[in-house]
């Protein structure tokens, strides 16, 4: 009987908090597949990305436009820790940019 109680205790301690779920979580933000939402995604992304990342991506985008190539600019950021492991946020920005999908931010 004692082993059954210990077994239930172990089961509860492992399952309820989720500690057995080892591994990391990654949240990915990328342009949506449907065209109407692409413009909104770009606007939201361009207003939320820090200037250094945006500058790097715009330079890469222009390089790929000039050379007729393409790539995927990925920014991965550690955002915290959960009981299951670390949590990351990834931002996928294709290059070259589709200039029709968004308006360039105005420079002061």
Overview of the structural elements:
- The protein is α+β, with helices and mostly antiparallel strands and 108 residues long.
- The protein has one domain.
- It contains three helices and three strands, in the order H-E-H-H-E-E.
- It has helices at residues 2-15, 35-48, 51-67, and strands at 25-29, 71-82, 85-95.
- It has a three-stranded mixed sheet.
- Strand 2 (71-82) and strand 3 form a beta hairpin.
- It is elongated and about 75 Å long.
- Mean pLDDT is 77; it is low at 104-108.
Mind summarizing the main beta sheet? 3 strands, mixed
Structural class: alpha+beta
* Strands ordered across the widest β-sheet: 1-3-2
Oligomer: single chain
Helical fraction equals: 40-55%
What order do the helices and strands follow?
HEHHEE
Number of strands: 3
Radius of gyration based on Cα positions: 22 Å
Shape summary: elongated
Distance between the termini: 75 Å
Mean pLDDT: 77
What is the total number of structural domains? 1
Assess the beta-strand content as a share of residues.
Answer: 25-35%
Stretches where pLDDT falls below 50 for ≥5 residues? 104-108
Number of helices: 3
């Amino acid at each position: 009987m004692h082993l059954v109680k210990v077994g239930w205790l172990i089961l509860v301690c492992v399952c309820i908090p989720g500690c057995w779920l080892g591994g990391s979580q990654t949240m990915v933000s990328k342009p949506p597949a449907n065209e109407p939402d692409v413009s909104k995604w770009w606007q939201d992304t361009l207003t939320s990305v820090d200037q250094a990342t945006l500058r790097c991506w715009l330079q890469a985008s222009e390089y790929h436009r000039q050379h007729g190539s393409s790539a995927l600019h990925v920014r991965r950021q550690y955002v915290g820790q959960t009981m299951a492991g670390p949590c990351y946020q990834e931002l996928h920005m294709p290059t070259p940019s589709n200039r029709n999908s968004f308006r360039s931010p105005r420079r002061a």
